[in-house]
Amino acid sequence: MSEKVLERHEVPKEDTWDLEAIFSNDNEWEKSAESLKSKLSEMDAFRGKLGDNAETLYQALRKQLELEEQIGLLYTYAHMRHDQDTSNSFYAALQDKAYGLVSLLNQKTAFVTPELLALEETKLNAFIKEKKELSLFAHMFDQLQKQKAHVLSNEEEELLARAKEVLNASSQAFSALNNADIEFPSIQDKNGKDLQITHGRFISLLQGKDRTVRKKAFEAVYQTYNSYKNTFAATLSGQVKGDIFTAQSRRYESAREAALSSTHIPLAVYDQLITTVEEHLPLLHRYVSLRKKCLDVEELHMYDLYTPIVKDIEYQVTYEEAQKEVIAAVKPLGDEYVQKLKKGFEQRWVDVQENKGKRSGAYSSGTYGTMPYILMNWQDDVDNLFTLAHEFGHSLHSDYTRSTQPYLYGDYTIFVAEVASTLNEALLHHHLIQTLDDKQKKLYILNYFLEGFRGTVFRQTMFAEFEQMIHERSESGEALTADDLTSMYYDLNVKYYGPDMVVDKEIGLEWARIPHFYYNFYVFQYATGYSAAQALSKQIIEEGQPAVDRFIEFLKTGSSDYPIEMLKKAGVDMTTSQPVEQAMKLFEETLKQMEELMES
Ligand SMILES: [Zn+2]
C-alpha cells in the first residue's frame, strides 16, 4: 500500500469494486431509472382491489417485487458510487435521485400492507388454494397476520403516525445536547499540554498508557455529565415514556414485548440472555483480576478498563497476508465456502484502499442480483484483518441467500446477520491461535478476543438489563430521576465487574452518554448474535461436517423463516441457556490460555 492517500482515479483497478457489473456506465443507470419511473404508475391499477380475487392479488404482489428489485439495483449502484468518493458531486446527485425513486415507490405501494391486513385469513387461504403461486407469499402473510392484533383503526393509525415526530423529540434533544451543546473541559496531557476532551478523544484517552491522564479524562467527562444530569434524565425518561405509549396504544403488555415482536423474537430470548450472563459473571470477575495483575496496580479503577494489557508489539498484516489468513481460517466451513470466498477476491467484490473522500469504516453491501460488495479502508493491522473476515461473513451470507431464495426472501434480519459475520471472526481467532508461534502475538490475539467478548456480551447485556429496569419502573408508574438512574446504573456496574474492581462513583452517570438507550430494546441483539456465533463456531470445530451442513443451510435461508427458528435449525436454541453457555465456555478456555501464557 502506498504512503500517501490517493485520489479516487489514482487507485489501481484491481483494488476497486466492480460496480460496472451492475451498470456498465452511468448512462445505463439513467435509462433504467427512466424505465422504472414510467412503470411506477402500474401499481395504481391495483389500489383498492387486492381483496378482489386471487389473480389480482398475485399480479399486484409480483409487480411490487419487480419494481423493488429494479430499484434495489439503482439504489445500490448510486450509494456505492457515492461512498467511494463522497466529494464527487455527480454521484452525490445520483444518490439523491435514487432516494427520490425509493420514496416514490413507497408512496405508490403504501396501500399494499393495509389492504393485506384487512384481508380475512380464511379468504387469504382460499386465494392461496386457488392460485398456487401465491404460496410463495405464505410466510410473508403469516408475519402480517401475527401483527394484526396490534394494528389499530385507520383513524388511530393516522393519529399514531402523526404522534411519531413528537415521540422522537426526546431522542433529538438527547442527540443535540450530547453531540452539539455539551462541552468538555481541557485536561493536561502527559507532556503538560492542554488538551480539549471530545467524545472521540475520550475513548482514545482511556485506551492510553498514562494513568494520570486516564483518571483526569474520566473525572472531567463525568463531572460534565453530572452538571447536565437532570436534563439527560428528562430526555431518557421521555424516550422511555414514548416507548411505553406506543406499546400500550398497540395493546402490548409491555414496551419490551412490543419492541421484540417487531422482529418476532420471544421474550424468553431476552430473559435467558440476562439470566445466563449473570450466572457467568464470575468469569468476568476473573478477567478483571487478570487485568489488575497485568497492569500491576494496587487498585483497578474504571478508567483502567480500556488500556491494553499486552505489551506493544509489531504486528502488521498486509492485505495480501490477510487474504491468505482469512481463506485458511474458513477452511472448516468446507470447500464450497472457501471457493466462494476466493471468487470474492477474484471478482473484485472488495474496494480495498482508502482514497480521498471515501466513506470511512467498512461494510458489506449489494442487493439481489449484484455481487455482495465490501467496502474497506485498509490499514496493515489486526483490526483490519478481523474486519475483512467479518465483512466476508456478511457477503457470503448474502451470496448463499440470494442464490437460494427468491427475491422476496433474499435478505435477512439484523438478529441473524451478525451471526454469519462474527462466526468468521471466531474461526479466524481459532486459526491464529493454532498457527501463531510468537508468544506476544498470541497474547495479543487472546486479549483481542477477551476484550471483544467483554464489550459485546457482558457490556451489552448490562445495557439490556438497565433498559429493561428503567422501562419496567416507568411502566409501574414510578419516576425516573437522575439520582434513581445513577444509583441503578452504579449497582449494575458493581455486580458486573466484581470485587477486584474499584467502581468509581462517576461511572454511575455513564447512562447519560449512551445513545443506545434511545434505540428501543435493540442492543441485546449484539450479545445474542455474538453468543450464537461463538457457540456455532465451537460446534463447527468440535463436531465437524454435521455442524457445517447446518450452518450452510442457515446461510441459505434468507428471511424465509423466523430468525429464532433458523438459528434453532443451525444448532443454537436462543430460548434456552445453551448458546450463551457454550460461548461462555469459549471465554473461559481463552481466559485460561491467556492466564497460562502470561505465567510461562
Ligand atoms: Zn457486521
From TrEMBL:
It is an enzyme of class 3 (hydrolase). GO terms for molecular function: metal ion binding; metalloendopeptidase activity. It holds the Pfam family Peptidase_M3_N. CDD domains: M3B_PepF (cd09608). Residues 205-585 form the Peptidase M3A/M3B catalytic domain. Keywords: Hydrolase, Metal-binding, Metalloprotease, Protease, Zinc. Its EC number is 3.4.24.-. Its cofactor is Zn(2+). Binds 1 zinc ion. One of its GO terms (biological process) is proteolysis. Residues 115-184 form the Oligopeptidase F N-terminal domain. Has oligopeptidase activity and degrades a variety of small bioactive peptides. Belongs to the peptidase M3B family. PANTHER family: PROTEASE M3 THIMET OLIGOPEPTIDASE-RELATED, SACCHAROLYSIN. This is Oligopeptidase F. It comes from Alkalicoccobacillus porphyridii.
